[in-house]
Amino acid sequence: MDTVQEEEEERLQTFLKWATNLGITDSPNSSSSSCLGQSLYVSHFPDAGGRGLSAARDLRKNEVILRVPKSALLTRESLTANDHKLTRCVQRHTRLSSTQILSVCLLAEMSKGKTSWWYPYLTQLPRHYDTLASFTEFETRALQVDGAIWATERAISKAELDWEQVLPLMRELELRPQLLTLKSWLWASATVSSRTMHVPWDDAGCLCPVGDFFNYAAPGEDSCCSEDVETLGYPMQNNSLCQDKEDVKQLDGRLTDAGFEEDVDAYCFYARVDYWKGEQVLLSYGTYTNLELLEHYGFHLNVNPNEKAFLPLESDIHSNSWPKDSLYIQWDGRPSFALLSALRLWATPQNQRKSITHLAYSGLQLSAENEIVVMKWLVTNCNTFLDRLPSSIEQDVLLLDSIDSMYDCPVHEVEQILLACGDELGAFFEGNKMQKKCNALKFPLSMKARRSIERWKLAVQWRLRYKQILVSCVSDCEEIIKNISSQNLSSEKTYRT
Ligand SMILES: C[S@@+](CC[C@H](N)C(=O)[O-])C[C@H]1O[C@@H](n2cnc3c(N)ncnc32)[C@H](O)[C@@H]1O
Asked: Are residues 158 and 265 part of one domain?
């Protein structure tokens, strides 16, 4: 262990002692001298979220594994309770949203440094985040897909606007100049976006010490597919780690792993599945596409059953009563139920549509010819979409390899990397105000450049997965066309003989 790791470990141990004194416990039904160790322990998962929680023993589905009393939750209420100046100033700014206020309260608490009652917890918060709002222009462009670029630009503008709106309040609070910067604001709002949990009394949610060490697993396919949920008109989750208990009950078994419980006045966490001792214990924060995960949490999943790829659609396709956002290609390359129905209807001559609408809406194939037209439309449109993007899957794979080797690159390999990445690497150096010439590169790279590489890598991985979905759609559709055509051929033969 180096000195930095030793200090980190020391801070973690101080925090766990503090948490124990507050009554946070992973063994609510028995007494224990430490908040963790009976059901869970802190562990590191380099490829699955970094710091997280492991099972300290075999855990059974639905058993309670962590309880965090209300008095240990960091909320607007708890932060303003003992800070009269903060309470007075906040009361004067009624037009700010609840999340803006919570973020300001968090910065005000940070400004107290070691004197803050929350200090042991504050030391456990990440120093930086990779949420979309922190992307530079270069990293935004690296997403390549228009919809993703727009979403990032929106996130950046929203963060800037939110910051401008809270500045007068932060000045009234006389926060240190360093805490008034956009950079500090991005940190505070990303902390709130990626770590808050739903509580029934405040829509800004709460920060939940120890409970926010759980990493994410998408709600499984086994419980309920997202498409069914949307078709039935369930709302999307709000942006917090855990949602309203009522929603949880409605979704029946899909997201029953955590919530605030009035009867015990505590946030309770349950094992969502059985876990073996040593396995990472995960929490489902909600149903998100990879872009949404990137926007709110700063990561995405290699395999995400809720991922969606959208194709540009002519207006006569989406005018067919399906909401536009239900028309997409699923993570496995299959068109969504709504997209398939809409395309089948669109591929039917106008004068016959009325009579078959009910069949299309119930998900039935209309005819072999109709199905072939639909599959061909998908093949053509996926290919056109892919062809318009600046790089291919093969180039992205190569680029990811090169990005990985950039971290501690010996100078003699730089030339090869430059060749592999071409223009995009040039743009990276420009974006980070570095020289492209090999002999002017400084390795090891600065912390700022390393962070930019992390976000760039996230963007390239994101677009690569998006492209892979479309490629898989193309090959599925071609297979279907082949099968239908050969069936038609053999039935024609039977008919002739
Ligand atoms: C609530 S925190 C979870 C604990 C966090 N790893 C920590 O050290 O504090 C949420 C953050 O953890 C990371 N994370 C959670 N689940 C992840 C996953 N499956 N893959 C990658 N990163 C993940 C993301 O950075 C996310 O913003």
From this structure: yes
What's the structural domain count of the chain?
2
249, 274, 297 - which closes a domain: 297
The pLDDT tens digits of the residues spanning 20-35 come to 999 999 998 888 889 9
Q: Which residue's CA is the closest to the ligand 1 atom numbered 15?
A: 215
* Cα–Cα distance, 21 to 34 (Å, whole number): 9
Of 71, 91, 81, whose CA–CA distance to 23 is shortest?
A: 71
Q: Give me the CATH number covering residue 167.
A: 3.90.1410.10
- pLDDT value for 427: 78
Query: What domain range is 418 assigned to?
Result: 307-497
Angle of CA points 92, 97, 98, to nearest 5°:
95
Is 51 touching ligand 1 by the criterion CB < 6 Å? yes
63: in domain: no
- Helix/strand/coil (H, E, C) string of 164-179? HHHHHHHHHCCCCHHH
Question: At residue 131, what is the residue type?
Answer: T
Tens digit of each residue's pLDDT (9 = 90 or more) over 456-472: 999 999 999 999 999 99
Q: Please indicate whether residue 233 or residue 199 has the higher confidence score (pLDDT).
A: 199
Closest C-alpha residue for ligand 1 atom 18 = 49
Question: Which residue owns the Cα nearest ligand 1 atom 14?
Answer: 49
Q: Is the peptide bond before 444 cis (omega within 30 degrees of 0)?
A: yes
Nearest to 189 by CA among 277, 136, 110, 129: 129
The answer to whether residue 43 is domain-embedded is: no
**Could you tell me if 262 and 315 lie in one domain?**
no
- CA of 282 from ligand 1 middle (Å) equals 10
pLDDT tens string 409-424:
655 565 566 666 667 7
Residue percentage of the chain with pLDDT more than 70: 85
Model pTM above 0.80 = yes
Query: 280 and 406, same structural domain?
Result: no
Q: Quick check: CB of 212 below 6 Å from ligand 1?
A: yes
Pick 193 or 409 by higher pLDDT.
193
213 lines ligand 1 (CB under 6 A): yes
- CA gap 56, 53 in Å, rounded: 9
pLDDT for res 241? 65
Q: Which residue has the higher pLDDT, 429 or 239?
A: 429
Residue 131 lies in a domain: yes
Q: Return the closest-CA partner of residue 101 out of 184, 170, 186.
A: 170
Q: What CATH number corresponds to the domain at position 335?
A: 3.90.1420.10
Residues 325 and 265 in one domain: no
Whether 270 and 320 map to the same domain: the answer is: no
